[in-house]
Amino acid sequence: MKILVYENFMTKVFWDKHLKKMKFVKKRDESGKYYLRIVDDSNKGEIEKIKSFCYSRFLRVVLHDDSMERSSNYRSRFFRRNKGVFGNSEFYLCAYCGKPLSKKDVRVDHIIPVYLASKTEKYKRMLILRGIRNVNDPRNLAPSCAKCNGRKGANGGLWILRGYLGRLCFSVMLRELILLVIGAFVLYWLYGFLTDLNIYKAFETVFRFFQP
Ligand SMILES: [Zn+2]
Hints:
The chain is α+β, with helices and mostly antiparallel strands. The protein is built from 8 helices and 8 strands; from the N terminus they run βαββαβαβββααβααα. The mean pLDDT is 88. The chain binds zinc ion. Zinc ion binds at residues 94, 96-97, 99, 144-145, 147-148.
């Protein structure tokens, strides 16, 4: 949630320091100067506190729902939550084509694109059905290569399914494959080890011993 407090005589004379202490940042656009703070939608207590502060001091406050807008920090939020295939933030797979990517090559993709989420009720509902109230939620973000990111653009439909499935499957499949190779190697080594020990001969001797 973006909270905007517009500058007026009162803010200039009395409340400038207070607003800055409340983590507001001074901005300016074509409509004039204002103080801006972004508060998490779930932090209802803080939003109410700011509202009552402004109302009681006759400050003009506007609450702007930015949950369906591209945030400035979604890339860092994605990497904070998503540590890649091996959990070391180094190695990722494109959710759409499976291409291996280093962190710097990852394009963080909005699986349900910002454009569709902000313009179309259907896509907004798809997010909400998954319990996602903000289009920049890491659950709506996937690693992708530059090519897939460019091709996908603001497309919906099957791309969304590919994004969700790919993000889940490619990394799981790669991990399983590596485990399988390690498992096969261990079995092969064990087989060689047992053959060298002549364990079969040992079994044979035991069997002969018990035969009448
Ligand atoms: Zn790709």
